Amino acid sequence: MSEHLLGIARRNGAPPESLAILERAVDALVAAARAGETCARFEDLAEVSTEASRRALLATGLVSDEPTAGTLPLVLDAGGRLYFARYFDYERRLASALTTLARCAPRSAAEQRESLDRLFERNAAALDPGEPDWQKLAAALALRSRLTIVSGGPGTGKTTTLAALLACLLERDPSTRIVLAAPTGKAAARMLSALGQAAAALPETVRSLLPRESYTVHRLLGARAQSAGFRHDAAHPLALDALALDEASMIDLALATRLVEALPADARLILLGDKDQLASVEAGSVFGALCANPGLSPRCRQALEDATGIPAAAIAPSAGSSLAPLADTTIWLVRNYRFGAGSAIGRLAAALRSGDPAALEVLAENAGELRLHAPPAGPLSGALIEELLGGYADFIARLRGRQTDPAAMLEAFERYRVLAAVRRGSRGVETVGEALEQRLRRALGREAPRANPWFHGRPVLIERNDYALGLYNGDVGIATEDGRGGFEVWFAEASGGMRTVPATRLPTHETALAMTVHRAQGSEFDRVALILPEADNPVLTRELLYTAVTRARSEVSIYSAPERFAQALSRAVRRSGGLGARLEDAAQPPGTRESQA
Q: What is the DSSP letter of 248?
């Protein structure tokens, strides 16, 4: 990349000092993209004064400081952020589309006061005196706005809120076309299942109108097998009235832009996620940026009081006159209905969110649902591998009993998972996963040459999207013998059924006994074992710890030296990006943009 651009700059007659800063700039941008960042801070590249370096970089003829030009490969904005042009363009397009949604004239939700009171009546018993019902407020906010952003951890009721909101929309207009989506197949399936459970108390007339299918974002947009493009875009919008996107923290900048631009002009968008989780693997921390500055105007707070009966003064402090570009669109759910005040997992998750050292105290208690193990230095011992494999005891028992029902096998397997922070190394996914697989084969009496990875009950993790097969990165399946000397792999469908794919047709995959924390996003298990590396690593952050711990419903075991856990707790993810600045620009009247502070 740098050599190509340097060659062009030389042909443009760029002086030596310009070539030097260009090479550093391109190398920094490549490193930033690998780290999930959309830009680099120009001040970090300048060896002399920033202004002199800026002039030298612009002299290459490859860098624009007038972003509307859009023809040069690099962009340097007024805030000192340096971009590959495509990432700047994605940020600008996404900001424009979202602010257009947010600007739409609000619709009164007061007319559905009775519906909101009825749907959230059961919440009252769990709330402290004077505590606002944030679920009810989130639903009311979504009824009045075409863009709603709801952030909350597991157990805060995002799906309950969504079910009530969809019920209100359908009571208002039964013909409303509602679509459910998530970044991964696993998350999409879980979204549909959770919505079905949350909607159980709704009237049958409403339940019958709820979506019976959920989509991955790629499938929804109509990904083409042999192309990077999608069937749906701004010129060919999706056929829907309301889109609910779950696990929105997992969506990257490019995909978020494509999705929002494919919405019909009058559609409603509901983003549900957890701002404290790990961001997407690809470039961009979209959901975190959108949730960063929630604010409700006095007018909005009064409208929410009219719709819910919750006093405006209790809803949030007044945002004053300086509102964020997406004001009146964002609510954080803070009440946890899954983990009680005495729950060790709940207390640990709360401490991890803020980097509170109290997390170490919670771990030190070694409560029944939360355990900290400090393995000796070196590779994990055989006894510890056996301990980790023991978490799959129910699954292994089914395999020993020659269980042939793939749905039952997959359900047993999905109750527990071994997670690792890193992929390589003695405590990474590759080493731990291989050790677990060897022990599992031995336990089943099915040891085989390394050239033959297949055995009945092998859990398989898909590592690459295959649009033709409808398989996506992160999908998990179970292998069974096909009766013809080969194997087939069964995958759960969002609708609740199972489908099979011949093992020989699978895209890149691996045995799923261990996976990275990143791959576990969008999944939940009864029990989780988390393994941290011996040495410090930049991936060890409080967001990684929080994401891993909140994958568990009932039990977490952490295998780490206490000091390594403490290092991760003290480190927060800081991704460079300018989506917030692009939103500020998009919210300004034409002719006054490009503040980019």
A: G
Which residues, given as ranges, of the chain have pLDDT below 70?
1, 46-49, 67-70, 105-106, 225-227, 317-323, 340-341, 366-367, 447-451, 494-495, 589-597
pTM of this structure? 0.88
* Angle formed by the axes of helices 134-144 and 158-172, nearest 10°: 40
Quick check: 528 and 557 in contact, CB under 8 A?
Answer: yes
- Which H or E run includes 418? strand 416-420
Q: Where are the domains of the chain?
A: 2-91, 133-338, 356-570
- Written as one letter, the residue type at 314 is A
Answer yes or no: same fold for 133-338 and 356-570.
Answer: yes
Kindly provide the b/e burial profile for residues 38-77, where b requires at least 16 CB atoms within 10 angstroms of the residue's own CB. bbbebeebbeeeeeebbebbbbbebbbeebeeeebbbbbb
Q: What is the pLDDT of residue 68?
A: 64
The correct answer on CATH 3.40.1710.10 for the domain covering 356-570 is: no
CATH domain 133-338 topology: Rossmann fold (3.40.50)
pLDDT at 596: 42
Structure tokens at 478: 């179970």
Closest CA to 191 of 493, 406, 415: 493
